[in-house]
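My current task is to audit a protein record that another person submitted. Alongside the sequence sits a line of tokens, each denoting a local backbone shape. Where you disagree with what is written, explain briefly why. This is what I was given:
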Amino acid sequence: MKISVCMIVRNESAQLSYALESIPEEYEKVVVDTGSTDDTVRIAESLGARVFHYAWNDDFAAARNESISHATGDYILILDADEWLAEDAGGQMEQFVREHPNEPGIVSIWNQIDGEVHRTQMVRFFPNAPQFQFHGIVHEQLYNGSEPATSLPSNIGIIHMGYQKDIYVAQKKEERYLKLYRKQLEQDPNNGYLLYQIGKLHYSLQRYAEASEYLSLCVDLREENRLYYPPMLVMYGYALKNLNRSAEAETLLTPFLTLYPSFPDLPFLLGLLAMDTMKVQDIERHFLRALEIGETSQYATVAGVGSFKAAYNVGLFYELTGQADKARTAYEIASSYDYLPAVNRLSQLTRGPFIKR
């Protein structure tokens, strides 16, 4: 089985080598350059990529389709210049093809955002067949003919660093994306996934009021079965929390606990909101529910909300309410993940009195 890794790039000399070097040597590397003025093309060629040139026309799907048109492999993996393949990605791709031949796969993309590890999910791995094409001028999505491609979960992992605020500012990605968002919204004003991505951009830049405006529109569309919807709800909840609207977030999110019973991010956030609104009776049960669910591979998530972060927060609750043994047990669970705040609290418990309100 031959795999083609397809990329579209422009002025990515600072990070392209890391992406290309993460690709196994036996894979085909297809790079479509949309007008670089730096060393991007030279770097790509020096690392064994087949480089093609394409005039940028403000349409990511068109550029993406140009890249896959040059692929000669049996399967295609989409990779961006600010991403790296996880060490076991090659083996996971082969396993996915053995178990689900001729099916597109959902790839986990791990993002480092403000010191936290977030996992998003996107359809990035699919058979090299003419019916699979991308649609959408920005945040393009894979289609099978005229319909969005159905897909199955995989264990393929990608590490992404492009959502850091300083990277957006340095590369002027904000202006570029907002221009394309406005253009696509004119064509498709009720595109929930696009509205989510706009809200996500504002949120990553800590513009919570703007983020909440777009995310509230997503909520109203009620696309509960779409892949983006559960993480969108959580992001909206955090935006409201940052705007000191925790009670509103609580009211909004609580009904979704039954709709997404395996999504630990929801009860974890509700635990934080209960701390804000002083609903003491809800704090413990929400964090314990997140721990009961555990870490999830079903949804986009933040690492730790089903394990060490939930244990640490319920430990704080126990410590504040004078439940020493329970606090120690919770901190021990969180410390087993080498979570430094829990390690510090556990050490403090052995030396001195509890935290006081």
In short: The radius of gyration is 22 Å. The domain at 3-167 is CATH 3.90.550.10 (Spore Coat Polysaccharide Biosynthesis Protein SpsA; Chain A). The longest strand covers residues 116-127. The mean pLDDT is 92.
